[in-house]
Amino acid sequence: MSVYDDLMAYQRETEALAQVAGRLGWDQETMMPRGAAEQRSEEMAAMEGVLHARRSDPRVGGWLEQAVAVDEVSAAQLRQIRRSYDRAVKVPGSLAQELARVTSMAQGIWAEARAKEDVPGFLPVLAEVVRLRQEEGAALAAGGDVYDALMDDYEPGATAAVTGAMFDRMRPRLVALRAKVLGASRQPAPLKGSFGAEAQMRMARDLATAFGYDWNRGRLDLAVHPFSSGSGDDARITTRVVEAEPFNCFYSTIHEVGHACYELGIDPDYRLTPLGAGVSMGVHESQSRIYENQLGRSRAFTGWMFEQMRERFGAFGITSPEEFYASVNRVAPGYIRTEADEVQYNLHIMMRFDLERDLITGKLDVADLEAAWNARFLADFGVAVDKPSHGMLQDVHWSVGLFGYFPTYSLGNVYAGCLHRALRAEVTGLDESLAKGDATPATEWLRERLQRHGGLRSPRETVALACGFEPDEGPLLDYLEAKFGSIYGL
Amino acid sequence: MSVYDDLMAYQRETEALAQVAGRLGWDQETMMPRGAAEQRSEEMAAMEGVLHARRSDPRVGGWLEQAVAVDEVSAAQLRQIRRSYDRAVKVPGSLAQELARVTSMAQGIWAEARAKEDVPGFLPVLAEVVRLRQEEGAALAAGGDVYDALMDDYEPGATAAVTGAMFDRMRPRLVALRAKVLGASRQPAPLKGSFGAEAQMRMARDLATAFGYDWNRGRLDLAVHPFSSGSGDDARITTRVVEAEPFNCFYSTIHEVGHACYELGIDPDYRLTPLGAGVSMGVHESQSRIYENQLGRSRAFTGWMFEQMRERFGAFGITSPEEFYASVNRVAPGYIRTEADEVQYNLHIMMRFDLERDLITGKLDVADLEAAWNARFLADFGVAVDKPSHGMLQDVHWSVGLFGYFPTYSLGNVYAGCLHRALRAEVTGLDESLAKGDATPATEWLRERLQRHGGLRSPRETVALACGFEPDEGPLLDYLEAKFGSIYGL
């Protein structure tokens, strides 16, 4: 065995344990009895302790000094392990465990606070999470920018400065488009009526199948906040069901299928290695968003969905595929990011990005977060927040310490715009397939061009090679202006 | 912090990780997509590697040398940790991991072989499991009896010699009772008809509630082979549903509720410590069997079940509570241990006990197991096995390496007989409660007298103190003769 082989054998067990920890997180959100929350936080902390000790083990440092890469793949494996090791050695194990313990508990506290509209009940644990992440960020940054250090965990190489500049270029076109759309004389009708929960779940399963989700290596369950989880041969998805809002269930499902197809599409040779997972959250989100929006909300695919809904639920007010397409893509004021239309979605992210940077830098105290959120929301969206579950309690993210994560959602949209331009240029007859409820030609192109490479290259490089051009926000904005211009007759 | 505190803090993380590994096993049997089996076996092996390394860590040996017990509880904690450490240091980590990997894979191979009636497809992996367990047993026995060393893992202090002697005393009375019952002129009618799956599951939930199962710290799911899993605040149960066999679903549920109530009934101060789980498999089985049989199959409780079934399923052929009681307790020839009546159940165990000892000692080769099983079954039960799923493929146990486990089932029945005698002597009005569908007075007595103590004392001592007398097979056999004598008019 070479030094490289020793290192990879060790790393394989670490990756397997990371999968176990991930599945424990899945269980917590889907299956765990409520009364187990406190015990679970100790279990999560113990797993994090094991993982952190393995990732920062001095043997890894020794192996990394001596291991020799013989090709592109082994070079990439070593690069990923070195990145993980460098980050792990900077963070004390006790801090890593404390973060796991507190964020596991905080999740339940957030859910209860959201249900009760109880901001004060959430603030103490949020303050604790912010403090721990500040401490972790400072350890990682080693004198550099703390927020950048946190963001780098989700999107290697990304910085607040570059991301902020991109947002500055995007905002004027998005704001202008929103103004035109909301002022247009043609306004699509919203969907009305009640749609049975079981029939929604059956349709959600069929939508997952339409995009090529491999049920032999995954499953669909309910969760308060839909998510996907797991790599290799076990990539699970979740959705939610509200009888008045079937689009919520359907598009959550398609979104999570995008994430899961990425994981399931990675070269099987990379399973349980550092290359065997999506390369970054931004690239991950590019897959979920292109499935959900550019494909799932396309005129062709919504035509098929319209027929499916009429068959399954009977008549429901909308009587033509054109009306249905417009309704699916309807732009309207709203509080909730995850329910936002494509035009406004990134404006939500820009707000979170600014607020969370201020929390991490200490410019904004958690005690003042609600006021800051509500003031900013009124300024950006022209609407006053009516209750905390429509405001700062709407997302689980901060409770679980995901600071630096929100901007990757927008980056994903930008990448999805680029990938969609390339996909359309290369895959002929895609609309004909989509119109028959078959999105697998798109999944196949994405698997071949992007998904299968896993963590082989940097996030930007991964997208650039898939597209054949350097990614920027242009294609996304062009797509949005064309699509919504057409729907709203601008 | 004292040495004892250091050791307990370390041990607490080990216990938390053991809970994680257990939950992974639960997931594998209830939720895991089929295609994830191979990856899962690596995940299980990695967890086992972590657990084994922690349990055999030289620091534990050092702490054990210096730690001082100050009371009964700390003495018991140290005794349990020493036991775990002594076992762990004898088994090489690579063997422990290999066992975890192979048994995780073997489970799926067994399930497939059983579905296809394919003994040859199962033999190679069974041979591998036997070989690994022989190796482990030899390491543990250190020159002593290999089978005893394996059995000791499930039932500390038990030996094949003492168990075999108990079986020798039980067999004549059981065989005589069976002969009288099967030859009786009065024979109860079997249950006939089809009972909707969803209504069965609803009734299963209500049965669990009737025994005081804490839904806030558990859940009920479907599994091929019902089991319970988890300690502390997360003790889950499973059942199965066959439309023609509602008793299968109901009594599997009550059985697993017995296991789960034991775990959930342990003193919360012991959570995530070595005392925080059932003390042995035999004592565990005493709880599941007393719930299932002495309580769940009692005249009083079946009277309530009869009314419940009539309300939920309508008329179903049996028209009186007396007939229903007899039908629930009907003795009939059958192949399957888990479906065996109380009279014949222990005869199944005696057969397994002999066969598995021969496998472990090498007297019986796995290639000859099917022939040996079928010959023995014919001799003991007077019936020729018609297919492997009714024979050696009926149980998951050997595929997952559970050699030395079967005798604890009979020990559990024996302990249940003793506990039932004591319970009936002390809890007045129990039949009145059971007749109203409320078994919680029994759960409360068992919790107070036995369950709450967890691993504080040895298995025998635990039962003896709960009963107020030294346990033996007498009360069980007396109970069986009285009950079946009355049902069959002997």
Automatic annotation (TrEMBL), chains A, B:
One BP annotation, GO? proteolysis
The reaction(s) annotated as catalysed by this protein in its Swiss-Prot or TrEMBL entry are:
Release of a C-terminal amino acid with broad specificity, except for -Pro
Q: What broad class of enzyme is this? A: hydrolase
Q: What is its EC number?
A: 3.4.17.19
Keyword Protease attached: yes
Cofactor(s) recorded in Swiss-Prot or TrEMBL = Zn(2+)
Q: Which residues form the active site?
A: 256 (proton donor/acceptor)
Q: For this UniProt record, give its keywords in alphabetical order, as a comma-separated list.
A: Carboxypeptidase, Hydrolase, Metal-binding, Metalloprotease, Protease, Zinc
Task: Enumerate the CDD domains for this protein.
Answer: M32_Taq
Which SUPFAM superfamilies does UniProt cross-reference here? Metalloproteases ('zincins'), catalytic domain (SSF55486)
Query: In its keyword annotation, does this UniProt entry include Hydrolase?
Result: yes
Q: Name the family.
A: Belongs to the peptidase M32 family.
- Recorded protein name is Metal-dependent carboxypeptidase
Protein source organism: Paragemmobacter straminiformis
Its organism's taxonomic lineage begins at: Bacteria, Pseudomonadati, Pseudomonadota, Alphaproteobacteria, Rhodobacterales
